[in-house]
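Customer escalation, tier 2.

The customer says the design service returned an amino acid string that "doesn't look like it belongs to this structure." They asked us to rerun it and document both sides in this ticket. The original structure tokens are below, unchanged.
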């Protein structure tokens, strides 16, 4: 019987984080038609939270 799995396996170059992360987002988006904006909003919120954490760490250091 055929086994079909919507799985993305990837390797990224950590020396080029921005284009690599953008490529991952672009690869995942087609699996969620009509929900791309919600995905991007979730990513935006995660990025904003991390930036806030980094700024908090700067104040402590």
């Amino acid at each position: 019987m055929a086994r079909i799995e919507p799985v993305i396996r990837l390797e990224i170059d950590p020396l080029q984080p921005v284009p690599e992360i953008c490529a991952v987002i672009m690869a995942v988006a087609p699996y969620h038609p009509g929900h791309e904006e919600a995905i991007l909003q979730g990513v935006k919120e995660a990025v904003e939270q991390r930036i806030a954490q980094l700024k908090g760490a700067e104040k402590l250091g």
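Tier 2 assessment: The sequence is consistent with the input. The helical segments are 17-28, 36-60. The longest helix spans residues 36-60. Sent an explanation to the customer and offered a walkthrough call.
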